[in-house]
Amino acid sequence: MKAVKITDGIYCLPVNLESYQLFEGMWPMPNGISINSYIVQGDKTAIIDLVEDTDGKPAELEAEIHSIPLDQKNIDYMIINHMEPDHTSWLPEFYRKNPQLQFYLTGKAAGLLKSFCGIEENVHIVKDGDTLDLGQGKVLSFHETPNIHWPETMMTFEQSSGTLFSCDAFGSYGKLERVFFDDRLSTEQHTFFSNEALRYYANIVASFSTFVTRGIEKLSALDIKVIAPSHGIVWRENPKQIIDSYARFAEYMNGPAEAEVTVIWSSMYGNTEKLVSNIVQGVRKEGLPVHVHRVPDEHVGILLASAWRSAGLILGMPTYEYEMFPPMAWVLDMFRRKKVLNKKVLRFGSAGWSGGAQRELDKLTEKLKWEFIDPIEWMGAPGEHELDLALSQGQALARQVKDFCSK
Ligand code: FEO
Fold it and tell me: From the CB of 49, is ligand 1 less than 6 Å away?
């Protein structure tokens, strides 16, 4: 791939990770992801963020640098917005090839540069609002945005073009192949990247939502004309769209999220499964969208987006050896870690021979501010009574969600 010109002297250099790879070593990426570096050229040249040292990806970035055309030995400044290794694991080798590089980063990032990469020299620590003049009108300013995504994170703003290099913020999954800008996307592609942004947010950023809200407030002081994130498309026609999307994703934490219901169910021998269709029917009677996911067939990284977006959750799980069915325990533990808060919730499931799933669920969710309606639980196989309850409780949960979302 060639570098993509954003405006005079500013280039996006996307490198795609493939769908068979796992992001952060755990998240499935059915549509891959791009890792974007940027070049800003004045009299001096800066590169903003790098790429993960995996699967030949650094060679792809080098080829894109050469395509500008630019000799990487002529890069003067390395701006490090964020030290997570998807952007920095190639940094030691890049520095070895370009020992003249001067690093610009926050104080916390400098500590991580030492611990992750063993680099302590040529380091310039920047503070909020500091600037770096590249010449020819290109001026970079630095803005600390802690915890979007790590504590050391900052964003870089090129003042003459109004381009915000936002690193993880405003990013999405999804490879960049033929389209790189929001104004070049078809309606279908917009929907694709919108869904990929939500799933990326739910997987990577969700637990830092308070900081996202705070960061967006702080960025409102900047005259942003272009959002250039480190993952996903560049927003140059309507940057407000992705800013507003992220603001809304962050609000989901405090609730209410959207008036939708996500059903996540698991079953050992089909006894818990028998209630699923009646539950879904009950929700639909109230006219709400319902998203159904089976565990463990579907990875928590996929269903997390749906759960994050929905104001209502319905969880189906049998008891397994006096506790929750283990694949669901993993999902619930991930919800706890990702702060999936403030939901209306219904649980259903076979108690097997003993019960115990409810006890573990109560423990795992005690800090999530979930409001439960009466569960549906039975010993062994469900009967007509439970099937009728599935319909009525699905409907009852949907009504609760509607009330919650109308306030
Ligand atoms: Fe794309 Fe938090 O790294």
Answer: no
Alpha-carbon 365 to chain mean position:
22
| Cut 0.70: pTM above it | yes
Q: How confident is residue 11, by pLDDT bands cut at 50, 70 and 90? A: very high
Q: How far is the CA of 303 from the centre of ligand 1 (A)?
A: 21
Q: Measured between alpha carbons, how far is 1 from 227 in angstroms, rounded to an integer?
A: 21
Q: How much is the pLDDT for 353?
A: 87
Q: Tell me the two tokens of residue 266.
A: 């698991």
Is residue 230 within 6 Å of ligand 1 at its C-beta? yes
CA dihedral 230, 137, 105, 88 (to 10 degrees): 40
- Residue 377 Cβ inside 6 Å of ligand 1? The answer reads no
Cα–Cα distance list, 333 to 199, 260, 301, 344 (Å): 18, 22, 12, 18
d(CA 149, ligand 1 centre) in Å: 6
> Residue-wise over 224-257: b if at least 16 C-beta within 10 A, else e?
bebbbbbbbbbbbeebeebbebbbebbebbebbb
Judge whether residue 352 has pLDDT over 90. Answer: no
| List of domains in the chain | 4-251 (3.60.15.10), 258-406 (3.40.50.360)
What gap in Å lies between CA 171 and CA 156, rounded to an integer? 15
